[in-house]
Amino acid sequence: MKRTAAVLLIALLILPFAGFAAAQCPGEGHTVVLKAPAVSKTSNGELIGVATDFVITVAPGTGHVYVETWPLAEVDMQASARLAAQIAGKVLGVDMNKYDVFIQIKADSPIIGGPSAGGTMTVGIIAALKGWKVNPKVMMTGMINPDGTIGPVGGILEKASAAHGVGANVFLIPEGQRVQYVQETQKKEIGGIVEINTQTKKVDVVDYAKERWGLTVIEIKDIYDAVYYFTGRRIPRPEAPSYVSVDTSFLRDDALSDYDNTTAYYRETLQKLKDSDVSYATYTTLMEALNQASVVLNQSKEAIDDGMYYTALSKDFQARIMIRHVDWYLDVKSQDDVQRLLKIAGSQINASESTVSGITIKGVTMLQAVAAAEERVEQAKGLLDEAWKYYYSGDYWDAVGDAAYAYERAKTAELWAHLGERFAGKDEISREVVKATARDYIDESNLIVTYIESMYGTVGGDLSQSIQQAEQYYEDGKYSAALFTAMEARVRAQVFLDTLGIDNRSVLIDKMKAMKDDAKTAIGVAQSQGVTPVLAMAYYEFAESYEKSAEENGSIEDLQTAMIFYQYARETAGLFLSAPSQQTPLPQDNSTDVPQIIIPPGASTPTDGSTSTRSEGTSEGLPAAVLAAAAVGAFLVGALVGRKL
Questions:
Q1: Which of 236, 295, 472, 479 could form a disulfide with 438 if both were Cys (CB 3.0 to 4.6 A apart)?
Q2: Last residue of one domain, picked from the residues 525, 550, 575
Q3: How many distinct structural domains can be found in the chain?
Q4: CA 174, 64, 125 angle in degrees (round to 5)?
Q5: What's the CA gap between 586 and 128, in Å, rounded?
Q6: Do residues 47 and 163 share a domain?
């Protein structure tokens, strides 16, 4: 009896671990082994390249992704692995809820490399799903984006060294990253004084790797290219429509009416200022603000004449913030007046939130527009919170300014909500769809931001704060605001990586044009699925306005802002679009032959002028506030450039 009880006790102790063991050791499926380069940081902070082993198994299951790393990575790879599985299923048209993915990652030292291994993991999952072999002489680096493109990463030179060190013949890198910049430090002793000079040097990774190691470095655009080089197999790319319409004429009437109303408001406020008894100093400051608003209104009129109606609405929005600040400040005679104005802003926010929350969402187009509206309501709340902080600290000027901004931001939420109603479809969509999408975007964005800060510190701007804000929105149940905040952080992070160290206009223009093409393709794909991506088309047009401005004034900052909005357009075009899925298991190709490395002619040809140089201090990449521009004093800081409707 005691013996039986002992056996039973042992069985009960082991039982809880049985499911885990079974999950880690599937009895069926396909396994693919790949090597991927990563970056490790030494004790003195130096970045070095290291090779990592990936063992990827895909087996019938219920949609789980299991990841084991050793030693523990500085960046959690779970989000990157989950995204890799999603993209693999999307590319192949496979329902990944019917499979489990098991990924074992082993390196000789702690690594920084969550998102940079995303492309490799996606290739491995695709190969395992299809039963394809991969060539062990091919390695790659690059994050995987939701649309299947290979995103930029850091540490290219270090990773190329690691690839050579483990015998790779071909090293795949993200398109546009063949030119890297390194810091060279020289020490010179003169009369007992040590002089240290640091210079920035441009390195062509393709030429350098070929000359030093005989390693062939190839830039790739997307996962379709990557799979081809690893397996020799071509997966058909989705065909973009031959004709893509990016037309914001659906906003024409709104833009015309808004321009007229804003112009009338400007004239009323100008007369109100002239009739006031404010001091000379206050009069001068307020008049300067109204003059700037007039300049922006002229830009709105030009946009209307050019048929750029979203840009016109955004310019009106920028102008109204300044006009309302002047208008409201003229009403301030005491702190009670400030408090009254803040309450007016709060009432408008409540009214806008009630309008937005009461909408029944029907169709993807409406879902995108309402999601944008909900995000703007939350932004307005945040601005009003800041206004109250200024109020309690006795700073009534900034309190009124933020209240004016909050009021106008809340009004734009109503515009987007009503716009969504115009494009209502037939089928109702649950807000749980937004919740699930928001969770994915937060996790993926957090991964990329943490990766950047692990390698470059906070040079990309305070992206972590945006992620924290997105998390707070999510915890509060504000899923649309969480989604867009995380998406915008990720886009800024990707543009930072893609432009790191580059101040050569021709190179930046080439990159911007590539982003523009990708955005237009994404819009076309959405349209081919019967969706009118109103938000994406609006952002695309807004990016064009900055592209035009950059051509006229030679501003690199405007180029970077155009990149930001083209990327916003690409991301939002694909929001909530469902991927086709196959309900039957894929036929398995059990070929045992290792695929040959096939390098098409011209694969290593430079894709840009490769003549860019960087001056000291340009490693910051993006300006600290991409969506803000130089303004007139403290009143206008951040009030103009990049402030979208």
A1: 479
A2: 575
A3: 5
A4: 35
A5: 11
A6: yes
Select the more confidently predicted residue: 537 or 74: 537
- Beta-carbon contacts of residue 551 (< 8 Å; ≥ 6 apart): none
Interacting residues of 603 by C-beta distance below 8 A, sequence separation 6+ = 218
Q: Any idea which residues carry the catalytic annotation? A: 116, 159
- State which residues form the domain around 549: 501-575
- Integer angstrom CA distances of residue 280 from 270, 271, 276, 286: 15, 16, 11, 10
**Per-residue pLDDT, 12:** 39
Whether the predicted pLDDT of 448 surpasses 90 = no
Nearest-angstrom CA–CA distance, 296 and 132: 58
Has residue 22 been placed in a domain? no
Contacts 24+ apart (CB under 8 A), 637-643: 639/318, 639/321, 639/322, 639/405, 640/292, 640/296, 640/318, 641/557, 641/558, 641/561, 642/546, 642/561, 642/564, 643/314, 643/317, 643/318, 643/321
Per-residue DSSP letter, 605: S
Cβ count near 267 (within 10 Å): 13
Two structure tokens written together for 243: 């004709």
- Residues 544 and 433: beta-carbon distance below 8 Å: no
At 46, which CATH number?
A: 3.30.230.10
pLDDT of residue 382: 94
pLDDT digits (tens, 9 = 90+) for 280-335: 999 999 999 999 999 999 999 999 999 999 999 999 999 999 999 999 999 999 99
Query: What's the rounded mean pLDDT across residues 503-511?
Result: 83
Q: Among 331, 358, 386, where does a domain finish?
A: 331
DSSP track, 426-455: SSB--THHHHHHHHHHHHHHHHHHHHHHHH
Comparing 164-168, 226-230, 546-550, 598-602, the range with the smallest average pLDDT is: 598-602
79 in a structural domain: yes
